[in-house]
Structures are given as structure tokens and as C-alpha cells.
Amino acid sequence: MGDVVTMDDLTNDEIISILDSAERLLPVAKGDCLLPVLEGKVLANMFFENSTRTRMSFETAMKRLGGSVLNFSSVGTSVAKGETLYDTMKMIEGYADVAAIRHPRQGAAQYSADAVEIPILNAGDGAGNHPTQTLLDLFTIRQAHGSLEGLNVVLVGDLRYGRTVHSLSHALIRFGASLTLISPSTLRMPEEIVSDLRAHGAGINETDSLSDQIADADVIYMTRIQKERFPDEDEYAKVAGIYKLSVSDLAGAKEGMAVMHPLPRVDEIDPSVDSTDHARYFQQAFNGVPTRMALLCRSLGVDVPKKVK
Ligand code: CP
Question: Residue 297 and which of 61, 89, 181, 238 are 20 to 30 A apart at CA?
Fold first, then answer.
């Protein structure tokens, strides 16, 4: 109970409830008021792979709610001495009430969830899933459009290795989105995911051209080419820098169209986009705080008050 390893661990009603709680928690996330409902609780931030946003927003979320955080990384811990993931997680189970785990190996979050009794929140497992990112993505989309229903969402870039788009596509089709998947042929969304999306009745369009899709988009979700997941550097070089969105590309975009990116960006979005009304990616990164606050409360069985002031 309380694990979130993939978006399948949450019903649509639970997703909406987390987003609604996150909305109420916005003043706490910004530091405008105190709500120490997680006082005495400990979060273990288990990061076996690099992170800025996910690790720090989990930490901010926990601290803003009065809880405390144990920060783990593979450098400076007994992982360097050969300790297994299983043993590491069994230790953490005794030290913390909930754990967020990021790991380079797909399946590591589920493995951890099976190994321990405390709730496990998947903070990104290899090229697998990143459900807590999806929650903040959905929150950002709802802020931009007022609803999650029936949007035309364009996912661009590394759809093969990009775990954010794997989780997000699954969630979006449950709210009736149409998806356009834009990637070079070598980085297409894995066939099993596309088949699964289609089996759920989703309208899916796959192409390699971004410029044709901008005018009809409600959301353009850019992603980084995941250099670290390529087995061969020459293969990476063939696709590096393939999609770059700049302000001139947005001339025909709909008013209100949201440009998003899980970040970090390399060169997928030119800084000229940053000052447009379309740019949502920095707000999106901040939204990791209220959504992860809401998720931590859910995992720890703590109700978010109906009114937060
Ligand atoms: N979006 C995201 O997962 O960023 P980090 O890798 O910095 O956590």
C-alpha cells in the first residue's frame, strides 16, 4: 500500500485527488504558510543515478511539510563496497518511513517495493517509468488547460529511452488524449507501449517531423536524447540535436499551447522560447514540490486538509 512504481498503481480518481491536494498545497510549497503534517516522518531519497529536480523537489516537499530527509547516493555509501540493492533497501526500511528511489536499472523500483514494507516511490528506473514526474506533468497540463480531458499532446525526441514519456503517455490516454509521437526511427516509442496505448483506444499518430504538428498541438512535450542509455556513442551522434524548438517555430501555435520539458534540456528548446507565454518548463519543475507533497501525504496515510492557509 502506498507504492507508486508505475501509473497503473493509481486510478484516475486517485490521480485527480493527488492533483487537487497539490493545488491546495501550493502556498505551502511556495513557503507562504506552514503545514507540518509530516513532522516526525522520514523520507529516504535513494538516488543511484544523477538528479537535480526529482531529488531536490522530494526533499523540499518533505521539509515543507515538517518531515526530514535521508539523502543517499551510490557515491560515499556501502554500494561502493559491493552491497546489494536488496540489502541496501532492507537497511533503509529500518531508517525511514517512505523511500523515493532512482536507479539506472529498469525494474529496480518494483524490486525494491517487493523487498520492503515501507512505501516505495519510483523516481525513475532506467528507461522504464517515472510516475512522479507524470503527476507533476499532469498538474502542469491542467494548470495550462483547466482540464486533462481530450487534449492533443505531441511527445518529441527520445521516446525509446525516455522514461518520462512512457509514464506520461499511459496516463494521458486514460484522460482521452490524442498522442502524436515524434522521433527518429531509431528512437521510436517501444512497440509494446504503442500497442498497449492503442489497445486502450488511444488515437496515436507516429511521425518524424515536428514542424507539421505545431499548429494543432495543445501541448508540445520536448525530451532530451538520453545519451547515457545508448550502447554505442556513434548511434547517439546520429540523432543528437535532431529536434530543436525555437521561438520562430511557434508563430502558428495555438494561444495557450504549452511547451513542456522534464529537464534537463541540452539544445531541444532554444532559450528564445523561455520568455514566451508557451514556456511552461520552469513552472513544471517547481510543480514537483506540491505534487510530491501530495504524494508523500498519500503514501504516509496523512490527509491533506480541505483548506490550507
Ligand atoms: N525531470 C527529472 O527527472 O529531472 P532530474 O533528472 O534532474 O531529476
Answer: 89
